[in-house]
Structures are given as C-alpha cells and as structure tokens.
Amino acid sequence: MGIRERKQRERERRRQQIMIAAKRVFSVKGYNKATMEDIAKEAELSPGTLYLYFKNKDELFSSLSIRILQYLNIRLEHVLNDKSNQTIEQKIEALKDAMWDVYKFDPMMLINMFHLQSSETIKNLSPQLLADIKSLSRSSLNLMARLLEEEIDKGDLAEVPPVVLADILWSIFSGIVLWEESKRMINEDKGYLEKTLDTAFEIFGRGIQKLHQLKTVKERGENDIGYGENVNDAIPAPGIQEK
Amino acid sequence: MGIRERKQRERERRRQQIMIAAKRVFSVKGYNKATMEDIAKEAELSPGTLYLYFKNKDELFSSLSIRILQYLNIRLEHVLNDKSNQTIEQKIEALKDAMWDVYKFDPMMLINMFHLQSSETIKNLSPQLLADIKSLSRSSLNLMARLLEEEIDKGDLAEVPPVVLADILWSIFSGIVLWEESKRMINEDKGYLEKTLDTAFEIFGRGIQKLHQLKTVKERGENDIGYGENVNDAIPAPGIQEK
Amino acid sequence: MGIRERKQRERERRRQQIMIAAKRVFSVKGYNKATMEDIAKEAELSPGTLYLYFKNKDELFSSLSIRILQYLNIRLEHVLNDKSNQTIEQKIEALKDAMWDVYKFDPMMLINMFHLQSSETIKNLSPQLLADIKSLSRSSLNLMARLLEEEIDKGDLAEVPPVVLADILWSIFSGIVLWEESKRMINEDKGYLEKTLDTAFEIFGRGIQKLHQLKTVKERGENDIGYGENVNDAIPAPGIQEK
Amino acid sequence: MGIRERKQRERERRRQQIMIAAKRVFSVKGYNKATMEDIAKEAELSPGTLYLYFKNKDELFSSLSIRILQYLNIRLEHVLNDKSNQTIEQKIEALKDAMWDVYKFDPMMLINMFHLQSSETIKNLSPQLLADIKSLSRSSLNLMARLLEEEIDKGDLAEVPPVVLADILWSIFSGIVLWEESKRMINEDKGYLEKTLDTAFEIFGRGIQKLHQLKTVKERGENDIGYGENVNDAIPAPGIQEK
DNA sequence: CATGAATGAGGTTTCATTCAT
DNA sequence: CATGAATGAAACCTCATTCAT
User: What dihedral angle (degrees, nearest 10) is formed by the CA atoms of B16, B19, B23, B26?
Assistant: First the structure.
C-alpha cells in the first residue's frame, strides 16, 4: 500500500469518525441545538478540524444521508439479485426486511432526509454532494421499481406503473417510521414499530395481489402521473428529481 | 357583550393574526431561518408584541399544530356522523378526503408536527399547550379508529385492532405528503400528490377488504402491540402519548 | 418637531456616537486589530447594536470616509465662493488651508480612503454607501478643478487641464500626509507636517505660475489622459470614477 | 564552493521563492484576505515551511519592503553617479525615472510600506528586520537629498534644506501612485499614471528653479523643521527614523 | 529540512428576548 | 397594551501557528 493510499484511507477513517459523532449529537439534540463544538467534543477533535472534512454544518448533516442511501442501495440490490424471492409476497417481504435493516442501521435517516427539503439548506451544499444524493436516491427507487416490475410483467398486467408502487412503498415506510419515532421521542415508548410495519406491508401486499387479479389493462397514462414511459429512464428519485 | 368579553375576543383575534403570519413565514423559510422579526413584520406588529401572546418562538410554532389538529378533528367527526358512509370503501374514501382537506388547509402541517419530536422543543412548551396537543392528537386517532371499528365489528371479525389500522392510515398519509413535498421543494414538480394518494388508499382499502374475507378470528393480543384493551381509553395519540 | 423627526434625529445621533468611537479605535489599533467588540465598548454599547446602524465592519469603516468627504466639500465650496481669493497664489493658499483643516478634522482620513482600494472591501459595501462615496469624491475634485480653471481661463492659456492640476494637488496632499503620518506613527515625531506642506504647495504654486508665463497653447488632448472634454461633466472622482 | 555556502545559497533561493509568491498573493488579495495557505500554495510549499524562513505573517509581509527599498537604493545610486545628469532638470528627470522604475518593479510597494504604520505590526517584527528597513529608508532619502544638495550648493543658495525637497519629491510620488492605484482598482482605468506623474514633476521642477532664482540666503533653521545639522548624518528615513 | 493535519483562540455576526417609554 | 431599540449570549467559521512524522 503506497503512502498516498494510506493517507486516503486515514482521511476516510477520520471522516467516518466525525460522522459517527455527528449522528450521535444530532440524534440527541436535533439540528438546531447541536453545535459544531458539541460534535467536535464528541469526536474528540477541535472545531476547526471538522471544517477540514466538511464545508459547513449543513454539509456535515447532509453527508449522513449519503451513508444511509448507500446502505439502502446495497440492500436493495441484494433483494433484486436473490433468486429465492419468487412470489410477490416474498418480494414485498424482502423489501420490508431491507427497509427495516436500513432503519436499524440509522434510525435518524428519515429525519435527516427530510431536512434536505429546505432550499436554504440545499444552497449550502456542494454540487458534488447534491449530485451524489440525487443519484443515490434515483437509484434506490429504480431498484424497488424493477423488483415490482418483474412481478407485474409476469402477470401480464399492470394497473399502476411499478414506479408508483415503489413510491408508495417508500412512503408507507417513511410515514410509519416518522410516526413511530415521533411517539417514541416523546413517550419513550418503543417496540411497536416493527409490528405496525408488518401489518402495513401485509395490507399493501394484499392490495397488490388484488390488483393482479383484476387483470384489467388500462391505458397506462404514466405521463399523467409524472413518471417516464420506461422505468429504466427518468425514474423519479426518492425525494430528488433532476430538472 | 361586556367589556371583558370584547377584550377577550380582541385578544383572540390578535393571536390569530400572529399565527397566520407565522404560518406564512415558517412555510417559506423553515423554522430555523424564520426570525421573530420576520413574523412580526408579516403580522404588521412589533417583535415585542409577539411575546404578549406567545411565550416564545417554540410555543408560537407549536400553536400552529393546535390549529391543524382542531380542523382535523372537526372533519373526522363529520365523516363519522355522515350516515351516507356505509361500506368500508366509502369510509376509507371519506377518510382520504378529510385528510386531503386537512392537507390543503395547511400543507406545512406534517413538517410542523414532526418538529415537535425534538425533546428540546418540548421542554420549552407550556404544560397547557402540551396537554392540548396531546388531547387533540389522541382524539383524532380515536375518531379514525371508531370509524374502522364499526366496519370491522359489522364483519364480526378483525385481524388487527382498529387503532392499528388508523395508525397505518395516518402513516401512509404522512409519508406520502412528506415524500411528495420533498420532491416538490427541490424540483418544483407538483400535482402528483393527489394521484399517488388515490392509488395508495385504494391499495390500502383492498388490503382491508381482504382482511375481512379471511374471517379468521385470532386472539386480539392488543396489549402486545401497545394499545389499550378498550378503544375508548388509552388510544395512542398521533405523535404524543401520555406517560 | 414630530415624533418621527425626533426619532430620526436620535438615530442620527447614535450613528455619530458609533462613528466617533470607531474612529478612535481604528486610529489606535488599525483596521485588522480593531474588533467590533472594542468599538462597542468604546461607544458604550453592545456589539449587536452596531449592526443596527451599520451592515458590517467594512461599512462602518467606510462610513468614516463619507464624513470627511462631506467636510472637504463644504470647505472647498467656501474657497470657491470666497471673493477675496483673487490671484492664483491666494487660491492655492486657500486650497492648502482647506486641506489642512480637513486633515485636522480627521487625520485618519487618507488611511481610511485608501482602505477602499481593496475590491474585497468594496463588495461588502451597500450600493447606497458606495454611490455616496463616488458622488462626494467626484464633487470634491470638480470643485478644485473649477477653482483652478477660472484662474487659467483668465490667463487665456492652459498647458494642463485644470482637473489634472486638481488631481496633482490632491495627490501631493495625500502623499505628504501619509508620509508624515507614517513617520510620526513610528517615531512619535510630530509637527513637521505643516512646514513640509507649506513648502510643497509653494513649489507647486511657483510651478503653476511658470506654466502661466509660458502662454503656450497646446492641443489639450484631455481624452488622452482620461478626463472629459468639459470640466463640468465627467470629472474623475478622487479615487472613484463611474464606469 | 563549500557545502555550507551551497546550503546558504539554497536557503536564500527558497526565501526569494516565498517572497515572490507572497507579493503575488498580497497584491491580489490584500494583507487581510491573503492567508498563509494561499501563499504556501502559490509557492508550491507547505504552510509549515513558510515559518522556517519567516517568523510570522507580518515579517513575511514586511520583508517585501526590504526588497523594494534595496532596489530603490541601487537606482538612486546610479542617478547620483551618472555624470551625464548635470542640470537640475536632468536630475529631477532622472529621479522621476528611478521612481517610475521602482513602481514598475513592484506596484504594491507603497501599499506595503504604509502597512508598516501600524504599531501593532511593528511589534511583531524582529529587531534585525526593523533595523534593516530603517537603514535602507534613511539611505534612500539621503541619496535623494545629496543629489539635490549638489545642485543647490552649486547655485550658492538654498531656501529649503535639500532633505525637505527629497521628502516632498517622495511624497508627490507616493501620493500620485496611491491616488492612481486607487482609481485604477475601482474603475479598471489605467495608463494615466505616467502622464500625471510627468506633469507633477514638471511643476515641481519649475518650482525648484524658481527657488534658485530667488537667490535669497536665509538662515537655514534645519532643526526647526526636524532634520539634522548635517545632511549626511541623521537623514530622516523614508517612513522610519531612529528614536 | 519539509510536511500538512490539527489546533483553538478569537473574530464577525445573528437573533430570541427584554424593558423603558 | 404596544413598541422597537438594545441587549448579549452564543453560533459558525477562519486561519496563524505548531509539531509529530
């Protein structure tokens, strides 16, 4: 391993160290109350050092989203490539597991991602980081859509474009997580999340099956609802689309 | 009308004036970037005056949640009392319409409500305001649950407690709104929200029907998943539960 | 006097209070080492208050130039209107006195004005302030040029455009002040300034007279050296010209 | 050449490399906005290395003055030794050329030198550097004075001590350069400097001649105006005198 | 001798909140 | 009750300087 590589690796290790500290501090205090000094202390570094690795507070915060999106992508690829997922039920179950793992990997994920909504925040991000987030988001939704597409194609029918189903799946997941997190934060109650999620996905799965049985081929009208003709191009990003 | 009442009414009018201004400013700038002076200017008042009506910035912000919860409650009561909603499909459709109206009443609602998650924020709220939010939240979920309960009781069966269904419905709604808002904010895309919502609720409704048809009576096990024995007490609040 | 006027006057008084404190602090510590907190303390105000009256540190600093330019303008107008200034010697003497008074009014003047050279500084200024500085600078040089113009016109000749003479006069003054200030600051020597200035203006005056005697009318070629055809328009600002 | 010498030479080369980079960066960004890292990058060195050659930022900055003063001295010596400069006109013309060359050698010169005014800056300089600056400054003014002195002595008269004339010459030059730099920086105008300088020195020269013609022998009174009894000692340094 | 990552003090600026009028 | 000027704590961020490698 050359010196250059070692340096690069060391640098990456330090970035991770900061992000781990940041995640902890943001989780406890929220974006506003968490100060850069808090994070520096948690990472056992000086405040100035943070700025060697992240342009500003917003960029540090947003970088946490990259981590989680990368993990989500990996998990979704596994689901897609796993040949043991044959039926629609198996696939939805696998999706649910993937999402659940992602949630366990970083429960603050969605809170993080919805913070990106603020256009003030976006202005502070470097073009590179923003591009990465967009790309990863688009990729994630694309993978989910492909999983559902196969199934629906198999049935020779589709009432809704797969990407819409993917969108809804993601929404259900987001909503439940947010909702339950919200309850947990205030009450310190816990543990209902998984069961509620189970039920929701079961209901969703039954809805999908029902759609299958209808075998009604309607005009697709995808453009009406904003998705491209072909799933493989113009897949809307989860949260972020290109202009 | 006595002087005292007139004063009281005048005071309430002024509160509303401030909240309307606050909603506008928070919607545009987000919680952090919106300053009390911005809000004062929008309300054509001085900063000091805001503090005669709201203890602090957090409390002003949170008061907006009260407004939206009150509106949600009113709409849900109408749905419950409307005798023309007979079938499960009609009821779910009516619920969806109610949620849609609530969304149109104040699209920032959910963003607002999830801001309450921060325990730092909660510490700043007056006990009265916190109690009101809890009470209204609990009431809303209660109403939704009762609507579904009737239907399920009618079918002599229930796989899941109604309150879980209510929870899920709310989550789906929250998730889709957040998700689509998120896309809209970045891309200025718009208009897909309603269609996606339509599809999601249709899928959800089919799932519910399917559950009916199963006619499988399981042990209820409500306590296992955290809801009270009786729907009328211990209904979990949307977002807030009592300890 | 209405309330509005009183407020306005009070506000102006406070601005002056801050500027006086700023001048003192900048003189002692220089631009870099002077902190906003130093100035606030000197003005017996809090740091935040300074920002109610000046957008930022650069703008506060630059505002000091406005004061001195206003004073210079007033003094130059008096010189121009004073009918007892008949000969070229009297006029140059009067100019020298005016400059001397301006120097006594604020010895930091030129240091202040040359700080404006930094384009980084200019970017921080409000358009209004920048426009004021430009306008006052242009006006000052215009007045000086008119004084010399009259004299040269009387002699029916001019080797150099009056505005160039004005430019040079101003430069001599600037140079000597800076030079002597520079010596004084390091050595605590003092008092030579006036005498050196006397001699310089005397030499300059003799040069002017000599020019008169030449009675050589050359092509003016003003545009070659960057001044407008007519003294009354396009007079170059002392330090700042419009594009 | 021994190893020791080679090292010494290498060290000097590195110093020059840094100073050239520093000049470039300071010219573009000004003292405040120029960071040590900027300079290090321009010199293709690391920040730490700069501190092996210069005690601190102020000392690096001030070292640039040494360079320019050395060059000024060399040019002035040439003027003094050039036997083709016979008349006062020729001498003043030669001085002007020298100053012009110095200006072209480093247009930031004067800005640099006036930065030394800040007593805070001086405290940061090493005694050696400070002594060098003082010595070179004194020498420069001394050379100018001797040039004028010869001429005036030749005329058997002098209304003003030569050193005062030298002071004024330098001031005129400084003032014009600063003034024109100031205009240029803001307006991107350029090229008027030389012509204005021409005119100014012409006026100055005529003034000097006029002084000659007066042939009035006054008591010298040098001490009154702060210069030493003998021109050759105690010549005030340009900008810096010894206590 | 050279490096450059890390430091951390301190600067500018913001803004929720107060209080004399 | 309303005002809005003033406050001042604290946030983010910079950058001259150091020191282990």
Answer: 170
